[in-house]
Amino acid sequence: MKDVPLVYADTSALGALLVAQAETQALVDWLDQAHGRFVSSDLLETELRRMAVREGRDQSKVSAILDGVSLAALDRATYRSAGFLPMPYLRTLDALHLEAAMRLDVEAVLTYDHRLGEAARTAGLDVIAPGAERAS
Question: In b/e form, how buried is each residue of 69-100, taking b as 16+ CB within 10 angstroms?
Fold first, then answer.
């Protein structure tokens, strides 16, 4: 039995810490109360750093966000398995996030991406999206 839940964080969620969105305050409040360990894949770092470049944000903010997340490297088998996921609506990068989450044996996925959330539920994972019910 796990003492602390393992939660996979994707870019749609942690990107809300970099660029303010409708859900940002709810996410910050939830993170302040959360008692989980956060993991993701190296893909998160690349996506957040590209977001910072596009939005003119300082890379030090990305580094600060990533300090709270353990990142796992994606191997060839992960890329291959992600390609075979049966959800036809799932985009490539989200398939990589989902496959990584399953390989890391997480209990939940923190995401605001509807397709990834649906796929994670289909795979038997809980989905966390603080404030999403208030978002338009």
Answer: beebebeeebeebbeebebeebeebbbbbbbb
